[in-house]
Specification:
Blueprint lengths: L9 E3 L3 H10 L1 E4 L3 E7 L5 E6 L2 H4 L2 H18 L7 E7 L7 H17 L12
Parallel strand pairs: 1-4, 4-5
Antiparallel strand pairs: 2-3, 3-5
Helix pairs in contact: 3-4
């Protein structure tokens, strides 16, 4: 499903088989807070899914807030992400609540994507 608010075609992964395929066939990039599974796809969009366990993050409000932060980061930075990839973001450590937690996630996501060579910033001179 492509949302109108995502002009370049970011879509959410919702089906179990989509997640399983990325887990099994994709490559893993590990960070301090998040792990990122990445799989090259045939589509002209970016498919993003999130796996955020109650054992790691806690109550539903904290999990939903973390998902909103991650979705917002992808929405704001979709122009710098190469198309044709399926991504699953997995929370691996508790994230500090509030602005400090958001800041740490906003620092970690681009670093993970750059390490995987699918995120290009304007500073790199490639976008």
């Amino acid at each position: 499903m492509t949302h109108a608010s995502h002009p370049r075609g970011i879509r959410r992964l919702t089906k179990t088989y989509e997640f399983k395929r990325i887990y099994q066939e994709g490559r893993l990039t590990r960070g301090n807070l998040l792990w990122l599974y990445i799989l090259k796809t045939e589509g002209e969009y970016i498919a993003v899914g999130m796996s955020i366990s109650h054992r790691i993050v806690g109550k539903a409000t904290a999990r939903n807030r973390l998902k909103r932060i991650i979705r917002e980061w992808f929405r704001a930075n979709c122009d710098g992400i190469k198309e044709g990839y399926g991504l699953v973001v997995v929370a691996k450590k508790p994230v500090v609540q509030g602005k400090e937690g958001s800041k740490r996630i906003y620092e970690e996501l681009p670093r993970l994507l750059k390490n995987s060579n699918i995120f290009i910033t304007k500073q790199d001179g490639k976008v």
